[in-house]
Amino acid sequence: MSSKTLLRGGCVLTLGAKTANLRQGDVLIDGDVIAEVGPSIRARDAETIDATDTIVMPGFVDTHRHTSTALFRNLGDLGPNGTPPGPIAATATPDDVYAATLVGLLGAAEAGITTVVDWSGAEPDDEHVRAALQAHADSGLRTVFVHPRVGEEVGTAGPRTGIAFGSTLQPAPDLDAISADWTRARGAGLRIHAHPGPEGPAPGAVARLGERGLLGQDVTLLHRTEIDDADVEAIGASEAGVSISPPSEMAGGLGPPPIQQLIDRGIRPGLGVDDERIAPGDMFAQMRATISVQHATMFDRKLAGKAGLPKLMGTRDVIRHATVDGARVAGLTGVTGSIERGMAADVIVLRADRPNIFPVNDPIGAVVWGMDTSNVDWVFVGGRVVMREGALEADVRSARALAEEARLRVGAAPGVVAGASSGGAV
């Protein structure tokens, strides 16, 4: 089989700074990289895929997900007081962690997500961490494994998996402790992902990190739903990344993300699924929620009679939040997020001939407003086929069986709602 693949005749959304989108064009994949983008590419030694009536674009980048929540997908309304069951870490075996992580990542792949930043729920011991990392390798995706253990797992990560440090921020952060932890992480060459603690975020916390000189381009801030002007200034000045997860944050009680505050300062966030217990697991939903929240913010200001109204976010903005901006937030600038020569061949092919979006008046608008996971036809990660003509190139039956066993075992533990083990009420 040829190491080259030619995607011929599709509408190509490169989303790149140097390569224009093409109403009709070809993409040549050579090994694990994009070799050429343009009309009528000749490549006699390539396997050719007819991409007529499709949209070819970079794979989506999920900048923040807890894959272990996949065992309890869509169960958020069955917990006490409307809250979802707790995380699996306290009761999960390494096999449970493997099953949860794998089924979470395969679900992402089927949704056209080629990169997942996974804030792991694995217990901080070697067996649980190895199980999670094995699931990352077996998924075929490009991933970032985020965990509080600084650098100890680097030797066991697969070729497409990076390691990052997960730091938990309390409302009144201990700056000395954070400084020590982040210094160790940076010494190990790790990116830092800062997650709010159980008590939630607090305005001014990010500004204090900035005053201490702790923020930088190697930091990703998560769920900053409550920030003030000083926080936004600190983020902008440091060029730290921001990941937002609108459906999960609003359903989980954190409130709407501060999209307008961020873009007013020129801060372009990445998008993340976060928690599948209370949020959809695909980026189509994240894009629609993001653009809808921004539009609602603008119209609220208009109804209140305020002047200096912001512009409505466009589809061309939000699709970049889900791709090239997400790559930057994940620390993968120049690796993925766009289709340009020399970039990793993380590419998805979306069917544009389905009734849910046909006729296609605007390709980007079709992806953002009209498409869903049923349109995902091919998925390539590093040039390797992960999904072919709508079917995953994985042992889905085995993964499903492992996940079902883990769900029943973990769901039976004390403190987890009965619906998690029984399959829920119908």
Description:
A hairpin with a 2-residue loop joins strand 2 and strand 3. About 1% of the residues have low confidence. The chain is built from 13 helices and 17 strands. Helix 8 crosses helix 9. The N and C termini lie far apart (48 Å). It is α/β, with parallel strands linked by helices.
Report the CATH architecture of the largest domain. Alpha-Beta Barrel
- Total count of helical runs of at least 4 residues: 13
Secondary-structure element order, N to C:
EEEEEEHEHEEHEHEHEHHEHHHEHEEEHH
- Summed up, the domain count is 2
Number of strands: 17
Low-confidence stretches: 80-84
What would CATH call the homologous superfamily of the largest domain? Metal-dependent hydrolases
Main beta sheet, described?
9 strands, mixed
Tell me the name of the CATH class of the largest domain. Answer: Alpha Beta
Q: In terms of structural class, how would the helical and strand content be classed?
A: alpha/beta
Return the CATH topology of the largest domain.
TIM Barrel
Helix content: 25-40%
Shape: globular
Radius of gyration: 21 Å
Q: Key features?
A:
alpha/beta, TIM Barrel, 17 strands, eight-stranded parallel sheet, 426 residues, Urease, subunit C, domain 1, nine-stranded mixed sheet
SSE arrangement:
Elements: E1 4-12, E2 22-30, E3 33-38, E4 47-50, E5 54-58, E6 60-65, H1 94-110, E7 113-119, H2 126-139, E8 142-147, E9 161-169, H3 175-187, E10 191-196, H4 205-211, E11 219-222, H5 229-238, E12 241-244, H6 246-251, H7 259-264, E13 270-271, H8 283-303, H9 315-321, H10 324-329, E14 347-351, H11 363-370, E15 376-381, E16 384-388, E17 391-392, H12 396-411, H13 418-422
Parallel strand pairs: 1-4, 1-5, 6-7, 7-8, 8-9, 9-10, 10-11, 11-12, 12-13
Antiparallel strand pairs: 1-2, 2-3, 5-14, 14-15, 15-16, 16-17
